[in-house]
Design goal:
With 101 residues, this protein is mainly alpha-helical. The protein has one domain. It contains seven helices and no strands.
Length: 101
């Protein structure tokens, strides 16, 4: 019985090997289907880093605006202790400079 089964299987496998499948139906529109699937996968989720890259110009503009505002709004004074001491302001000025007042 085992030999008969092996012989039948061999005939079936030989017939299957000799048969060439018709793939024309699968080949039609393959590229279109593939690109549609890739496009659907890309549109499904937007990773956080893609959103962050889209916000880079806004963050850059905000950084430049803050830098300009800081540069314009700082008072124009020199904190050189040597100049104050040479002007004769003495210990009071030195104490104010060192204490941050």
């Amino acid at each position: 019985m085992g030999t008969d089964l092996n012989g039948r299987l061999e005939r079936i496998f030989k017939a299957a090997r000799g048969e060439t499948p018709d793939t024309t139906r699968v080949e039609t529109g393959f590229e279109t289907r593939l690109m549609a699937r890739i496009r659907a996968e890309r549109e499904k989720t937007l990773p956080w880093y893609a959103a962050a890259w889209k916000l880079v110009p806004i963050f850059s503009a905000a950084t430049v605006a803050l830098g300009v505002w800081f540069y314009v709004s700082t008072p124009d004074y020199t904190a050189d202790m040597g100049l104050y001491m040479a002007a004769g302001y003495g210990e009071t000025t030195a104490l104010n400079l060192l204490s941050g007042e």
